[in-house]
Amino acid sequence: MALVLAIDIRNTRTRIGLALDGRLVSQWAVPTDPDETADGAVACVLGFFDALARGLAPIEEGAPGAIDLPESAPLADGAIIASVIPALTGVWADAARRLTDARPLTVGPGLKTGLKMNFSDPVAVGADRVAEMVGAKSTYGAPALVIDLGTSTTFELLDETGAFRGGIIAPGMKLGAQALARGAAQLAAVELRAPKSLLGRTTVEAMQAGIVMGEVARIDGLIDMIWADCGYTTPVILVGQDAETIAALMAHAVTVDQTLALRGLLELYTANTRR
Fold first, then answer.
1. Is 121 annotated as a binding residue?
2. Which residues are the active-site ones (predicted)?
3. Which of 14, 259, 232 has its CA nearest to residue 139?
4. What are the residues whose beta carbons fall under 8 Å from the beta carbon of 213, sequence distance 6 or more?
5. Same domain, yes or no, for 52 and 96?
6. 270 in a structural domain
7. Residue 62: which region, alpha, beta or left (left: phi > 0; alpha: psi -120 to 50)?
8. What are the catalytic residues?
9. pLDDT in tens, 113-157
10. Is this model's pTM higher than 0.70 or not?
11. What is the CATH number of the domain that holds 244?
12. 202 and 148 assigned to the same domain
């Protein structure tokens, strides 16, 4: 029985996944702390394991009902990390070494991905985006379009050969809402949910329409533009914060897959440790 930790560090949220024999068993999400220490990261994983042992952590569909968790270190056989915050990469790597007694893999130069990068600067492609594309290719095949809703809204297109053709990066919905509240003296922060009607009858409803429905229109519009540019349609996979809310409002059929990056990390771990 092989236990592996997959750690996905984003600007806003960090997800920790636990896999048993290559299959994702459970995941745990915590706010990303820019001042995190290795001690704090260890405590976070220990909290995840404790919640899992007590039946308080979510179990992925198809996972075994009972998981035999170690009671002392090493808690797992290995770990893999994807990080978009360089200052936290080493912090979590130190924590992972303590938890596993092994050097963790880190998504970046030197790691085999199996992805052909039709990109002028492949090294500049974020580790999170690489993990998502690996997960999408493995699960949905190619071509495929991955859209990630986070601090930024990103689009990644895998072409018909499974190569990364290119992408789009735009400000995320919450970032846009924060900028609007900061830049307009008479506009306050609002809850990001769909308004009762497209044309708001209050300032709050008008802002919700502009922010939420504007994001929906932007994503729907960019999907059509991407398909027109590449000359074919693709499955569309939506991930990230508010993905379920946005998917329900979109004109295009999409699949929401919140485990995509973690499964991609596990694919990368297997590919780089296979003997």
1. no
2. 128
3. 259
4. 194, 195, 198, 249
5. yes
6. no
7. left
8. 128
9. 999 988 777 777 889 999 999 999 999 999 999 999 998 999 999
10. yes
11. 3.30.420.40
12. yes
